[in-house]
Amino acid sequence: MNMLVLRPNLKRIHYCFFNSGYKDPVFNGSSEDYRRDKTALKNILANIKSVSTNLACGSDPDAIAVRVLFGGQYFSRPAISGVHVKEKLKELIPFAPLHIPATLEIIECCEQIFPSVPVILIFETAFFAGLPQRESLYALDVDLMENSGFRRYGFNGIYHSAACNYAISNKQNANKKTEKILSICLEPKPEIAAVIRNKPVMVTGGATPMEGIPGETTCGEIDPSIIISLVQKKGWGTEKINTLLSKQSGIYAITGKKITIDQLMCTQNHEYKLARDIIKYKILQACGAGIAAMGGLDKIVFCGRYISAGKSLAPWLIFKLVYSALKDVSDINVDFYPEKIDRIIAESAFIFLLGNRIAAKCEHSENGSVF
Question: Rounded to two decimals, what is the model's pTM?
Fold first, then answer.
């Protein structure tokens, strides 16, 4: 199945085209400022259509997979775009005003450029839609939380889900169950999830990706009084505070340089020692919380674009978690899930679409149609 993957963020849209049977994309790329108007997005998709034809991939893909950063409580699994799905997305606009309108525009343009091709939405938050209330809720007024959408969401669910499935199937010891997994996703904003039998019970991501472990430019968890103080004592507005917390904090704030998680963890540069110690300590804390939430640990799996940092981090982490606390190392395994996000999205969309088609055939068969 030929699959076009679209992965938008606030500034650019990444795309790649997988031809049937190919593990790596036939072509890929990205485009800046796709959100300035619909004409720009249509031109991008029209160019993709032209390139795929010239490369003999077929005039159109068989399906388009779109990564969606926020699906709220409505979407706990992928969805094929249609009238009902788009209406639900519109209801989510107040909870994710920076992302959902752009998603709707992408869907609309895809339907115009590729009118007969199904658009499959893959949600980052879907994996965490069923978090236990003890984990998902904040100690705030219930009505306020319901009306504002304030609850804890994970924001690397696509990676976590795929990595945990991989960890469960990749058993070093065939006689041992792999049920309690720590998934450590090393992205520019690291995130840790505790997962029991592929059901998350704890995640460091919050109502926004800002909460949790500090990232390359994000602050991570912070005392809310600091924000109040910036407003009261310095007269800062929301835009300046948002810039500080999301673009001028984290590793960048500590080192004064814009470096990646990979560069931080895979070097012994003394200049980065404080930032390295802080990030490692926050990861250790989160792992401890995850183990406590699961009541044990069977396996640790690393995933994300900076998986090489995980290979550097793993020996130290195992020593801290196991030798210092859990004592017994014989039953703890470590996996590294190397797949890239675009391939994961393509495979998720393919499996979902295939399942839908099988279900539809079964339904027709039960109604007397020929299977």
Answer: 0.91
